[in-house]
From TrEMBL:
Pfam families: F-box-like. InterPro entries: F-box-like_dom_sf, F-box_dom, LRR_dom_sf. It comes from the Eukaryota. Residues 13-52 form the F-box domain. SUPFAM superfamilies: F-box domain (SSF81383), RNI-like (SSF52047). This is F-box domain-containing protein. It comes from Rhynchospora breviuscula.
Length: 277
């Protein structure tokens, strides 16, 4: 009887095709431990083109932190920055997607490192930065000339400058997702400087009805608009008519309302500081 073929004898291209579908925890801990051929295959940059850090547990007592430190003989305490640099180094500049965690979030130095070492990014999912670091975001994001999708936790204070960078350097951008307070200048910047945007998600934002209508009218290429759980508008007859005329295929607005549960129409008054006399 013909001897059964062993896993470690599989063709390297087949192994790479399998490994590129795995998450970072498997790539760093499980796969390299099996055999030398699997370890060699896991070093192929193709396996590291998608770097999804979100969803991993980076707490010092987590299995990932402890096992990674033990396997690679890390001196001192495990750090997210160290793990990030380890993974980015494996990409050899070929990464096309990065998704950073919310907690244990990336620092300004981490984002700068990624922007320099991963110039071919097509999708970036970024956490909040410290307020004092936000002015650096436009320069960082502007380095990704191939960027098509950008997701951020909230609208940064440097939003106007960010949109300028997207217009000048990220000409392939078609999808933008973030939340915050969108007023006259913000919406005007999206409409005038990102005319080719196809997918826009502003859920959980402050978005007045007139600004929503401006987006519907001004963004000619838009085919998906997600504005769920917003404050500032209701999807009335006028909005529905404008959506119909715009040609948008996907319009999600569930949970959006004109005022919040405290009765405020804008974001200018914090209900927690209102005294009832």
């Amino acid at each position: 009887m013909e001897e059964e073929r062993r896993w470690e004898d599989m063709d390297t291209d087949c192994l790479v095709n399998i490994f590129r579908r795995l998450g970072l925890e498997d790539l760093t801990l499980a796969v390299p431990s099996v055999c030398r051929s699997w370890y060699r295959a896991s070093l192929d940059p193709t396996c590291w083109r998608v770097l999804k850090f979100r969803g991993l547990d980076f707490m010092p007592w987590s299995n990932l932190s402890k096992e990674f430190s033990n396997r690679y003989g890390l001196p001192g305490r495990f750090s997210f920055s160290g793990f990030l640099k380890f993974c980015v180094a494996r990409t050899h500049g070929e990464a096309i997607e990065v998704e950073l965690p919310l907690l244990f979030g990336a620092t300004l130095n981490d984002l700068t490192y990624i922007s320099l070492e991963c110039p071919k990014l097509k999708k970036a999912v970024l956490p909040n930065l410290q307020t004092e670091d936000e002015p650096h975001l436009p320069e960082i994001i502007g380095r990704w000339h191939e960027l098509e999708q950008l997701e951020m936790e909230c609208k940064p204070s440097s939003f106007q400058e960010l949109v300028d960078q997207l217009r000048q350097n990220c000409t392939k951008l078609v999808s933008l997702k973030l939340y915050g307070s969108f007023k006259n200048d913000d919406v005007s910047a999206i409409v005038s400087k990102l005319p080719k945007i196809k997918s826009l998600c502003l859920s959980k934002s402050y978005l007045p009805k007139d600004k929503l209508l401006e987006i519907l009218t001004g963004c000619k290429c838009l085919h998906e608009l997600i504005v769920k759980d917003c404050i500032g508008f209701e999807a009335d007859e006028e909005v529905s008519k404008r959506v119909s005329l715009s040609g948008i295929k996907i319009f999600e607005h569930e949970g959006s309302k004109l005022v919040d549960e405290f009765g405020y129409e804008t974001d200018e008054c914090d209900p927690f500081y209102v005294q009832v006399i």
